[in-house]
Amino acid sequence: MPSDDAVAEIARRFVLNLRSAIGDRSIREVARVTGVDRASIAAVLNGLSWPDIVTLAKLEIGLGISLWPGHADGPN
Length: 76
Hints:
Structural class: mainly alpha
Radius of gyration: 12 Å
Oligomer: single chain
Order of helices and strands: HHHH
Mean pLDDT: 91
Helix content: 55-70%
Shape: globular
Number of domains: 1
CATH topology: 434 Repressor (Amino-terminal Domain)
CATH architecture: Orthogonal Bundle
């Protein structure tokens, strides 16, 4: 469900993009191709933590897709 909070909405959309990019692959497989620890991937998917820029870059490079959703509509 979309959030009225612009930051929370970006985080929500990032996780949706990551889930979509993972598809039917296991977290173990994604960890192998991205170089990101399985526990870190699981924590992000479960909303327990957010990736730093290095982790974000590794996920995007390893999965071959841009995951960051950009700016949510909202006040500047």
